[in-house]
Amino acid sequence: MPGPKSGVELSRLRELVYPGTSHHLAPFVIESKQRHFVTDIDGNTFVDLVSSSASVPLGAGRSDFIDPMVETLRRIGNEDSHGVASTEMLPLAEKLLAITPGSLTRLDLGLNGTEAVETAVKMMRRATGRPIVIGFLGGYHGETSLTSALGAEENEISRGIRALSAGFAHVPYPNPYRSPFGPPRPGGSGDSTIDYLRDHLLFHAIDPGEVAGVLIEPILGSGGCVAPSDAFWKALTGLCDEFGWLLAVDEVKTGFGRSGHMFAVERWGIEPDLMCLGKAMGGGVAPIAAVLGTERAMGGYDDVPTGSTWSWLPWACAASIATIEAFEREPVLENVRELERVGELKLGELADRFEQIGEARAVGGFQALEFVRDRASKERDPELQQLVGRRAVELGILTDSSSTSLNIQPSLAMPPEQYAACLDRIGTAVERAVTELGR
Question: Fewer CB within 10 Å: C terminus or N terminus of the chain?
Answer without folding.
Answer: N
